[in-house]
Amino acid sequence: MPRVNRVLKPGTGQISITDLADNLPSSNPSATDDPDPPSPLEPSPEQVPPSRARSSTSAQLVSAHPQLPAHITPLPNINSLRRRLQPGNSRNRAVPTASPRLPQLEEVREGAHDSYSPGRANSRSPSRKRRRLHTMRPDSLSSANGFSPVPNGSTQRKAGLNGQSASANGDAHANGSGKALASSTYYGHNREEVTRILIQSLYELGYSGSASALSAESGYQLETAGVATFRNAVLDGRWADAEQILVRSFKEGNSQNGQKATPERTLVLAEGADRSEMLFYLRQQKFLELLENRDLAAALLVLRQELTPLGYDVDRLHALTSLLMCPADQLHEQAGWEGPISSSRERLLADLSRSISPSVMIPQHRLAILLDYVKQGQIEKCKYHNTAESPSLYSDHHCDRSDFPLEVSVNLTEHTDEVWYCGFSHDGSKLVTAGSDRMVLIYDTTDFTVIHRLMDHDSGVAFVSWSPDDTKLITCSQDKKARLWNVETGHRLLTIDHHSQPVTAAGWAPDGESFVTSSFDHQSQICHWSIRGSSIHMWKSNFRVQDCAISPDGRRLVAADTEAKIHVFDFRTYEEDYCLSLDSNPTSVTISRDSKYMLVSLKGATHGEIQLIDLDTTAVVRTFKGHKQGEYVLRSTFGGANENFVVSGSDDSKVYIWHKENTELVEALEGHTKGCVNFVSWNPADPTMFASAGDDRVVRIWSRERDRSRFAVGPSRSSRGVSSNGFPLTSALRTTSAF
């Protein structure tokens, strides 16, 4: 970068200006603008007299002026510059140390020098100006919107105890100047919050050095000294220290202001923090660890002198008391305590953190949780989202309608009467169908050929249930019997003939060693059986059961009766947890894969309703409407990848599909010709396939249009044609008013 040298000529009062192109500034951090050496034909600056240098430079600028880039202003006439620098000029009596024109003058001289060579003064093109490293930034960003250049020698800000910067607005300063390095917001978000969440995420990702560097550069602390002390006390099992910090924090009364700075051994508590609750959680952990170490005397002392005086959650206190007699190998299961001590302490800390202000203790995995919210929001807006893959963070997510199963690929016409049930095995390799013709058919889903025909029932079969390992299945019939079958051989293993009324449904325990059956029988409406046929337990209540289901985690048994009620039992103790009253009679109940929700179909005069109910709170989370359901038994279920959809048949011969999250009706598919669509089953292993069973005696396989070529044979799988004669649409089992 050339310099301008001003020399006062003796006796003239004038200042001589020369170009010192060979003296580059030592403070310039970037590369020189002309990395190539001068041409050997070009004299070096040392060989050119000052007067020649001035005239040569002036001539270059005059000739180059028409081709200079638009952002470069031509150098003013040198004589005019001399006149402005005359000692008699009042504006220039003192030579300034820096002139507003000097950077511009510097640019022009650099450009002229770089592009000059003898004989090419009128043909040279504008020089390309290399961007300096210390001024480079994206063209679309500025310090106002969150981008700032790397500070050089900037001082770090001291963080407050609550994680906030000591600076009022969080601005940083670079190079000792008073100019703000960045604003207090980042694209509308609080800069401190974003930075601290990034620091936490870097630690969780294992980038401890980067996290420390970011904390040092930004001046923001991840958490206060009090939080760090409390965290270590909990994770190390130093319960007295942890309690002391909690008690002192409540005495300080700082829970009313989440932004208040606190001493080193206190916390900023969230609004509404409950002292008894937090102490109960700490002492409960202490009690359980003593039990695990079989120090029963110390555990009893904690129970009597520390937990009981709190008077918090008496029911939980009674449950803890019962654990004193619990064998060591059953302690974790009975206490709901999973994993080793270290994991349970981490969960305890996560529970306690909800009562601590996030201004000092950010909830665990905060960035991951926020990213999950972003992805979930995109899934909720994606009408045809039907993939188990998590959406990318790089771009907005969208699923095309062509990737959704909307076309009938195969028609299964083996049944001779109404088809009441269809269901895929858990691995998706088989499909079972059943109906009023007493037949139970098992298909291979690779080509939908019949593997087995199970013909032992004397009346219609309304329900079938696969075992967890898909090696067995239970069939429930109007003949008042349930039968257990070997799927591989097709042989009957067991017959349950205990019920005095039609068997309506069945459900498997997660271990596959037992199952339950439900019936319209008033005396033994629900029975628990071993796979060897012995009775384990029988519920004796004065109601009839239309449908039943066991949660995948094995904790609950749910039964839908014929009197507009849902009964929820603890499957481990057989005690009823609660009874939920509904507006109308339920016809089916299905439990979600995560055991958190149940899907209940309700019949109406003409239009039905499907409710998604939280099993813990009994709150109706979602409601799905639009299909038609009168007196017939229609069963709704979850469908799609990750159970993103709710699907049901309808009295109008259509299949209805709703988006589970936003309750939007995705499709109402026409495919069946007459009567009701009684059951729909989505393939658990292939989200692009589902089956529907109808009164038209046909089971239809739905898939994407491009997948229809997978099936080598034509769309029909039957040696019998569908009869054109009329057929009945009702049965004793399919209407709840028959008994």
TrEMBL record:
Bias-annotated ranges (Basic and acidic residues): 104-113
KW Repeat (keyword) present: yes
PROSITE patterns: CTLH, WD_REPEATS_1, WD_REPEATS_2, WD_REPEATS_REGION
Keyword Repeat applies: yes
Biased composition regions of type Pro residues, renumbered to the chain: 37-48
A Gene Ontology term for the protein's cellular component: GID complex
InterPro entries: CTLH_C (IPR006595), WD40/YVTN_repeat-like_dom_sf (IPR015943), WD40_repeat_CS (IPR019775), WD40_repeat_dom_sf (IPR036322), WD40_rpt (IPR001680), WD_repeat-ST_regulator (IPR051350)
GO terms (BP aspect): proteasome-mediated ubiquitin-dependent protein catabolic process
Keywords for this protein: Repeat, WD repeat
WD repeat feature ranges: 412-453, 454-495, 642-668
Name used for this protein in its record: CTLH domain-containing protein
UniProt organism field: Penicillium chermesinum
